[in-house]
Design brief:
- By secondary structure, the protein is α+β, with helices and mostly antiparallel strands.
- The protein folds into three domains: 178 residues, Immunoglobulin-like (Sandwich); 108 residues, no CATH class; 265 residues, Rossmann fold, CATH 3.40.50.
- The protein is 28% helix and 30% strand.
- The protein is built from eleven helices and 26 strands.
- Strands 1, 2, 18, 19, 20 and 24 form a six-stranded antiparallel β-sheet that branches. Strands 10-9-8-11-12-13 form a six-stranded mixed β-sheet, with helices on both faces. Strands 7-6-14-3-16 form a five-stranded antiparallel β-sheet.
- A hairpin with a 5-residue loop joins strand 25 and strand 26.
- The longest helix is centred in the middle third of the chain and has 32 residues.
- The two termini are 32 Å apart.
């Protein structure tokens, strides 16, 4: 999913109409002037957008509250009240058969019987299972898997999909979106048989503690703690960058998106426990000049990194459910193999350092954190309860549409109820939305195609530098485009977005080009059933690749997306 310099779009792109149309488009020229007595045509585009937010409402014990109406809610954007215009409640009927997941339904009023929605896409769930093998130990990880497999089989409904991604200093998609619960379970079983670097993390922590205990003075001990903290911080930055990159590819995916993060990492203060350990050792080392290790630990603060994960999730409408796999297992260093006992303060610093961040990420995105428990089945039951009973509220966005984060708060008028929802959102520009969706279309199926575009490739030809030139044509139905009369000319405009990837999932930069349409009035009727053709050459590396194309009508913002697999090879 990283950028690759191998993929370049040639600048020599051009537009053409089919030869059967008989009438070619005229060359670009200044807009036609109004003739004497001609009435000017005024076109005003009104972009009506609705900001949607899903809200879970429970009592103090976590039991779902059902039957509320939109009048029971208060929605604030940047502190300003908003008028709820769209509202429905998601409810779950009893299972229809043995072993079948409950069927989702919606209702817009408490006394309305649950009904199947006309557009089920709004209820289709996309689950992303993120497994942090960098910090997980095999025992704790696999213990979570046992409950996770049951959760998948019991909760995956028709139309739902799940994918599995692992992180071990490299991001790997182990299973792309699928509705096959058995395949998901088999993938989890395969991962359970693999090593996890959490064991190495424990070993590195013990080695750092040994060096601190053997240090000649306080400064040497602090230097060891700093080096250790820097290493942990480096790993955290890589993990955050990977997970944010993954969520970026999901921005254009439709449906209700949740990410299950299984980890023992994400420290709020990388290496904090090591500075606490220095304080313990310093009490025994009478020769040490005592300093303030707690102040030293404040130099390592990953609050912004943790916040960035929540911001990326909210921007891409993903709810985070975090699971700290450590559970109630005793601190691993309180064992006979340790040279000296570890104080409760150090033990607590290790645990709280990562559980605090897990709570924060879930809280900011409207999800739930599972920490300090071995009852992972109970945790997944709570997640399933969230996904089966919630409210969807919508309000009209303002006229400004810029890539700017805004805060959002949803609460009920009854103060005894507990509400959970995302705390922020980004009202994305058209350009950002197109970037998101063309990338999502590269990796995941199901992106809409309202314009009805088609794409086709020509024969790849080899270049002297061993790259390949691949002709690409995008066919856009003329009936789908908004073409407006202006004197003797009909005009319009559309923008094309193209991105490509190789067999490793490496992704090019997104190329965007805007193209005007100018057609003589006497050619419009003959062309209405034809395609407008956008042609471009791609320079690609040899081997298997995939091309994703997005088109947006610049007048109406109607979009279309298509993708195609190809193999760039010498066919001579």
């Amino acid at each position: 999913m990283k950028a690759s310099a191998w993929y370049l779009l040639t600048i020599a792109a051009f537009l053409s109409l089919p030869l059967a149309a008989q009438q070619p488009p005229v060359a670009p020229e200044p807009p036609a002037e109004l003739q004497p007595g001609e009435t000017p045509r005024i076109l005003e585009t009104i972009d009506v957008r609705v900001i949607n937010v899903d809200v879970v409402v429970t009592d103090r014990k976590g039991n779902p509250i059902t039957g509320l109406t939109k009048d029971d809610f208060i929605v604030l954007e940047n502190g300003r009240p908003q008028n709820v215009t769209n509202f429905y409640e998601v409810v779950t009927e009893a299972a229809t058969g043995e072993g079948e997941p409950a069927a989702p339904a919606i209702r817009t009023a408490p006394d309305e019987a649950p009904r199947q929605p006309e557009q089920p896409e709004q209820l289709r769930r996309k689950m992303i299972i993120f497994i942090d093998n960098l910090t997980l130990g095999p025992f704790t990880r696999n213990r979570v898997f046992e409950s996770m497999k049951d959760f998948v089989s019991e909760s995956l409904r028709p139309g739902d999909q799940a994918m599995i991604v692992t992180w071990n200093r490299s991001l790997k998609t182990r299973l792309n979106f699928t509705s096959d619960a058995v395949q998901i379970q088999q993938t989890l079983d395969a991962i359970a048989g693999e090593s996890a670097l959490g064991i190495h993390a424990i070993s590195e922590r013990r080695q750092a503690q040994d060096r601190i205990r053997e240090a000649r003075d306080y400064n040497e001990a602090v230097t060891t703690a700093r080096t250790y903290s820097q290493s942990i911080e480096h790993d955290l930055r890589q993990t955050v960058a990977a997970i944010n990159s993954l969520m970026g590819t999901l921005g254009g995916v439709e449906g209700k998106k949740v990410m299950l993060i299984t980890s023992e990492g994400f420290p709020m203060q990388p290496g904090r426990d090591m500075f606490y350990y220095i304080d313990d050792v310093a009490k025994e080392k009478t020769s040490w000049r005592r300093g303030s290790p707690f102040l030293e630990s404040m130099n390592f603060n990953s609050q912004r990194l943790i916040d960035s994960v929540a911001r990326a999730a909210n921007a891409n409408e993903i709810t985070l459910y975090t699971l700290h796999a450590g559970g109630l297992v005793g601190y691993e260093q309180s064992s006979a193999e340790n040279r000296t006992p570890i104080s409760p303060a150090v033990q607590q610093a290790v645990i709280s350092n990562s559980t605090d961040s897990m709570r924060l990420m879930a809280d900011l995105t409207g999800g739930l954190a599972t920490v300090g428990t071995n009852n992972f089945r109970g945790a997944f039951e709570k997640i399933q309860r969230d996904l089966s009973s919630y409210y969807s509220l919508g309000y009209r966005a303002g006229t400004e549409r810029v890539d700017r984060q805004r805060t959002i708060e949803v609460k009920t008028k009854d103060p005894s109820y507990v509400t959970r929802s995302r705390r922020s959102f980004v009202e994305k520009s058209i350009d950002s939305e197109m970037n998101d969706k063309v990338v999502a279309n590269l990796f995941y199926e199901g992106t809409e195609n309202d314009l009805g575009i088609q794409i086709r490739t020509g024969r790849p030809t080899r270049n002297e530098d061993d790259t390949y030139r691949v002709p690409l044509e995008v066919l856009i139905p003329m009936r789908s485009l908004t073409i407006l009369p202006r004197g003797e000319i009909f005009t319009g405009s559309f923008s094309v977005y193209i991105v490509v990837s190789n067999r490793h999932g490496d992704m090019s930069e997104i190329e965007r080009q805007q193209h005007p349409i100018r057609i003589p009035a006497n050619a419009i009727e003959a062309l209405k059933d034809e395609n407008y053709i956008y042609s471009v050459d791609l320079i690609m590396e040899p081997g298997r690749g995939k091309i994703s194309v997005g088109v947006v009508d610049d007048t109406t913002n109607v979009t279309g997306f298509r993708s195609i697999d190809l193999i760039a090879r010498d066919l001579r």
